[in-house]
Amino acid sequence: MSALEKLIWNVLGYTAMPLIFLFGFVAVSVFTCLALMWMEKRKGE
């Protein structure tokens, strides 16, 4: 593997992990907010 390939794979590897955590956190936050809003609507009926 050339130095350029190694550099590209290192950059991809080290940027993928934080992005996965970040998108996971955002997805869970959005889902939780939607679930809470839905439950609040049902309680008010």
- Fraction in helix: over 70%
**Unreliable segments of 5+ consecutive residues:** none
The overall strand count is 0
**Helix count from the secondary structure assignment:** 1
State the end-to-end CA separation: 63 Å
Transmembrane segments: 20-39
Protein name: TIGR02808 family protein
Pfam family, one: DUF2374
InterPro entries: CHP02808
How would you describe this protein?
Keywords: Membrane, Transmembrane, Transmembrane helix. The chain crosses the membrane at residues 20-39. The chain has 45 residues and is mainly alpha-helical. It has one domain. Helix content is 93%, strand content 0%. The chain has 1 helix and no strands. The radius of gyration is 20 Å and the shape is rod-shaped. The chain starts with a helix and ends with a helix. The relative contact order is 0.08.
From the structure above, extract its key features.
single chain, about 45 residues, mainly alpha, 1 helix, about 0% strand, rod-shaped, transmembrane helix, CHP02808, membrane, transmembrane
Outline the secondary-structure elements:
Elements: H1 3-44
Concise account of the structure shown:
The protein is an all-alpha fold and 45 residues long. Helix content is 93%, strand content 0%. The longest helix is centred in the middle third of the chain and has 42 residues, at 3-44.
